[in-house]
Amino acid sequence: MNESNIDWILAIACFLAGIGIGALCYHLLNANVARNQKVRQRLAQTELELNQVKDALNDHFSKVADLAGSIQRQSQELEHHLAHGADKLVDDLKLKRRLHGGETEDEEVDAPQVPRDYADGAKGTLSEDFGVRRRNEESETASPPRY
Fold it and tell me: Which of 23, 52, 86, 120 could form a disulfide with 99 if both were Cys (CB 3.0 to 4.6 A apart)?
């Protein structure tokens, strides 16, 4: 064999090896691209589903608000109808006041009391004079001074 033939054979072998390595790299890199494309497609589909759920939720709460407003309106109409009927038909003043929402004079509402840690007549740790000694108690129970 000739030296020129060896150069050509070596050049062809390197060319074929380069093609093989290039094809292998393309295959490996292309696999990641395809995988990324699938992930992007799933992400887009998930975002679409999320937007649909948000829209459905907004519609649901809008309808609930409308229904609650309708119930309030009907309740007010019912109270007005009862009050109007009471004005025409009822002779008892106490019943009329109660139907109109006014309180009667004989009903008293107790104001809430401040919570305490002791019962009536007893003194607890939250009382104002807890731990305070009176002057006459100090003289009786005072110990002699220490020197």
Answer: 86
| CB contact at 8 A, 99 and 83 | yes
Could you read off the pLDDT of 116-131 as tens digits, one per residue? 666 666 666 666 776 6
Q: Residue for token digits 């937007």?
A: 51
pLDDT at position 104, please?
46
Q: Is residue 45 part of a domain?
A: yes
Is pLDDT of 75 > 90?
Answer: yes
CA distance 112 to 104: 20
**Residue 29 exposed, middle or buried by CB count within 10 Å (0-12, 13-18, 19+):** exposed
In a domain, 122, yes or no: no
Model-level pTM greater than 0.70?
no
**Under 8 Å between Cβ of 124 and 130:** yes
Residue indicated by tokens 């929402």: 101
User: Whole domain around residue 91: which residue ranges?
Assistant: 3-102
Total of domains in the chain: 1
